[in-house]
Write a structure and sequence with these properties.
- It contains 17 helices and 12 strands.
- Strand 2 and strand 3 form a beta hairpin.
- Helix 2 crosses helix 3, helix 11 crosses helix 13 and helix 13 packs antiparallel against helix 14.
- It is globular, with a radius of gyration of 24 Å.
- The N and C termini lie close together (9 Å).
- The N terminus and C terminus are likely disordered.
Length: 530
């Protein structure tokens, strides 16, 4: 069922280019409020149909009828391909703690970072996200509010720029991005097992068509070229030059040779084409929310419940086993190297490895008990998890340098030490990929146990940690500090990461005049066939 309503917003004859859409944030906030407000009658009627006589939308509608209430929009993150908001009902007679909260995400057509490219995330991704969240809530038992309830998926037409607005419940489980704990080096041990069990439940779902979001896979396949180009540079580097950037990585690549370096990424590309299980496919630690860190006065590091939420389902598709787990592991791996260069290895080593091991143990337990997989299947999934962790670490953190400025102490490192850290990250990523895809010693990896693979994984880490520990010992030890993202109350969007491999030059905006824009909304209900 689709419920269509229309409205118009007068833009006072101001023209706005595609690039300006992401910059004119106040105008976009007005559009978001207008869209939600005009949808309230249908939302209230839906609540009544579900025997919710005094539901949140009825309370919002009643409050807005008075003169002392309004919807306040706070920008959380975004600007390249979407903008995320917190929507809060503000009433003079209520405290903020009692106010109603919603989450909203405004998605731009074809992503603003590359409006002219034939490859882009189409607006179908938002419809799919709405559908996926609903199906998960209907199918997965005992989700512990890991997925927020979706309320609306709205079509917005602003001149000839198409957008979609996704509105969901505000997550009860997470208030800050999980990456903050990894930056701190102090990790809530309750989170990883919950994530591991949930990942297994998602990977076992068969409710979605196998071509859902296939365009996302097509874009990710384009990363192979960027990685091959980076390896070609390493292979062509003259190691006898007086100054050689990333010399140890170049030596490693040259010791393997061109054929092996090429095969690593061609085999990774082949794996990406597999449709073995449904997955989130973007499960790094900025798309995982946890309870906010309590005030310092409480002397507590974590909230009372250890809850977790997974957000941003717009890129979910059928892919290879182990990819979700690998992306979860990637940030702890690189962050461990950053902590080590800052002299914190002793404090964080066990915490980072425990996160990886606990998430895997819970995943494997759920798969064995509820989804009837065998040990051989788990071994392949574990090896793939190592490979995809290596891919994200190499491609995102090393090759493109995405997100690394948020690692602990990174901006306080000298340029030389920043380059050293980035090279160490690249080496770890390459070694993980090489171990999982290349079988140079004739060993059949299918016969290798998970514990043996874990031992190799840790040995790869330890080789680089030894190098970084040696450098850290010669430097002044930096104190372990709280995440600057938390201190600034920022949520980091990963749109910049996606933009970097679709078009490294980011936005080359086409100029389109927009005058007297009309805004149209199409409410896609939960029982929509879309």
């Amino acid at each position: 069922m689709c419920i269509a309503t229309t409205s118009s917003i007068n833009d006072e004859n101001q023209s706005m280019s595609v690039s300006q859409v992401s910059e004119d944030k106040e105008r976009l906030k007005t559009m978001v409020v207008a869209a939600i407000t005009e949808s309230l009658p249908d939302l209230v009627e839906n609540e009544r149909a579900n025997d919710e006589a005094n539901g949140k939308f009825a309370r919002i509608a009643n409050a807005l009828e008075g003169s002392n209430a309004s919807l306040k929009v706070n920008t959380l993150s975004g600007g390249y391909s979407n903008l995320s908001y917190q929507i809060q009902l503000e009433q003079e007679e209520e405290s903020n703690s009692n106010s109603i909260l919603l989450f909203a995400k405004l998605c731009f057509e074809r992503a603003l970072w590359n409006p002219d490219s034939p490859k882009a995330y189409l607006l179908d991704r938002t419809v799919n996200e709405f559908t996926i969240m609903n199906r998960i809530l209907d199918t997965v038992i005992d989700t512990d509010d890991i997925v927020a309830e979706p309320h609306l998926c709205l079509d917005l037409l602003h001149g000839d720029i198409k957008m979609k607005l996704l509105v969901t419940a505000w997550s009860k489980s997470g208030d800050e991005q999980f990456a903050n704990q990894i930056i701190d080096g102090i990790i809530d041990k309750r989170v990883a097992p919950r994530l591991g069990k949930f990942m297994a439940q998602i990977n076992a779902m068969e409710e979605f068509p196998k071509d859902i979001n296939d365009d996302v896979r097509d874009i990710l396949l384009g990363t192979t070229e960027g990685n091959l180009n980076k390896m070609e540079q390493a292979l062509q580097t003259n190691l006898d030059d007086d100054v050689v950037k990333d010399k140890r990585l170049c030596e490693l690549a040259q010791s393997w040779g061109a054929d092996v370096c090429r095969d690593i990424f061609l085999l990774n590309e082949k794996d990406l084409k597999q449709k073995e299980c449904f997955g989130h496919q973007d499960l790094h630690l900025f798309n995982i929310l946890v309870e906010a860190k309590p005030p310092v006065s409480t002397l507590e590091n974590f909230g009372p419940n250890g809850t977790v939420a997974v957000v941003d389902w717009e890129l979910a598709f059928w892919g290879p086993k182990g990819r979700d787990m690998g992306l979860l592991w990637s940030w702890p791996i690189s962050a461990l190297l950053a902590h080590t260069l800052n002299g914190h290895a002793d404090n964080v080593y066990n915490a980072m490895l425990s996160l990886m091991d606990q998430s895997w143990d819970a995943y494997a337990k759920q798969m064995l008990e509820s989804h009837h997989v065998d040990e051989e299947d788990l071994k392949r999934t574990y090896r793939n998890s190592m490979a995809w962790a290596g891919w994200f670490v190499f491609f995102s953190h090393y090759n493109f340098g995405a997100q690394i400025e948020h690692f602990t102490g990174y901006n306080e490192l000298s340029p030389t030490d920043q380059d050293t850290l980035r090279e160490a990250i690249g080496i770890v990523g390459l070694k993980l990929l090489h171990y999982c895809y290349i079988n140079e010693d004739g060993q059949n990896l299918d016969s290798v146990s998970i514990s043996d693979m874990t031992e190799t994984r840790n040995a790869i880490f330890n080789d680089e940690l030894q190098v970084l520990n040696g450098i850290a010992a010669s430097r002044r030890r930096r104190s372990q500090r709280m995440s600057t993202l938390r201190l600034s109350n920022r949520r980091l969007s990963d749109a910049a990461f996606h933009s970097s491999f679709v078009n490294a030059s980011f936005v080359k905006a086409r100029e389109d005049s927009i005058r007297n824009s009309a805004v149209r909304y199409e409410v896609i209900s939960e029982d929509s066939e879309d």
